[in-house]
Amino acid sequence: MAVVTGASAGIGEATARRLASEPGMRVVLVARREERLRALARELGQGTSWLALDVTDPDAPDRVRRHIEERHGRLDLLVNNAGSAWRAPFADGGWENVRRTMALNFDAVVRLTEALLDVLRRSAPSAVVNVASTAGRVSRPASGAYSASKAALIAWSDTLQAEEKAHGVHVGLVLPGFIRTEGFPAAELTARRRTRWAVSTPERAAEAIVRAGLGREAEVYVPRFYRLAAVARTLAPGLVRRAMAGGTGQAMTTATGADRSPGPATGADQPPGPAGRSTVESR
User: φ, ψ for residue 154 (rounded to 5)?
Assistant: First the structure.
């Protein structure tokens, strides 16, 4: 039995479809858009259920837990996928941008995992997959809040894995680079031949999530060559900083679904609104 957050579109939807193809796997879809969840659950069949909620709501973790306990009684895989980004230099976005980004990309993940941890332990061997980002390893201008939230998620996941291994709960990480989704369309990148190669698909991200969860891998980059950016940041931090502050960072500028909407977002679960500009990392 698996729970997937941000399941109404993008990586979350692709992951739900991929998991539903596993023999005997039942999936609980979690996102805000009820109509999409209802339609996807009906399409997937085989015991798929859904919960329409915002993962940042105070009662969200308890609602998910009650749903699992009442309908399934166990949890084999938790996929923390819901996430978003609002791009702004710190001088413009300030603490408020950091606060709302951390609330969704980090705090909500921690709160949901806390609520479900004893269920995961009782169901062991089980797994948690936290969908982070290569931006948690390498940051760029105007994406500090997003990168900080993903860096925190990466560090916390490493600690949680060390703590929960003895209880049979594996904690895996997926670090997407550019994945073309509704929330992160990457249209500017796919329109240019010199950057088109850097964009991958939700389906490949879903396969990475299955590898990190059911395959119990420690961390998986999507595409795999993005691991080189993390290695470069460790071996040559000054060089990477100069690159990100110059033409390389400018070449990776595009619009995201969250930037286009004035309200809160949950990653792929956020419908687009008025046009905006930002730097896309993942999901």
Answer: -65, -50
What domains can be seen in the chain, in order of their start residue?
2-279 (3.40.50.720)
**CA-to-CA distance for 160 and 123, rounded, in angstroms?**
17
- Cα–Cα dist 145/85, whole Å: 8
| Catalytic sites, residue numbers | 146
Mean pLDDT of 209-229: 92
DSSP category for residue 224: G
The whole-model pTM stands at 0.87
Q: What would the pLDDT profile of 34-63 be if each residue is shown by its tens digit?
A: 999 999 999 999 899 999 999 999 999 999
Torsion of CA 201, 148, 28, 118, to 10 degrees: 140
In terms of C-beta distances under 8 Å and separation of at least 24 residues, what long-range contacts does 184-193 make, across chains too?
184/10, 184/85, 184/256, 184/257, 184/268, 184/280, 184/281, 184/282, 184/283, 185/254, 185/255, 185/256, 185/257, 186/254, 186/280, 187/254, 187/255, 188/253, 188/254, 188/255, 189/252, 189/254, 189/280
Point out the least confidently predicted range of 50-59, 76-85, 159-168, 257-266. 257-266
258 Cβ neighbours under 8 A, 6+ residues apart: 84, 85, 86, 183, 265, 267, 270
The pLDDT of residue 256: 54
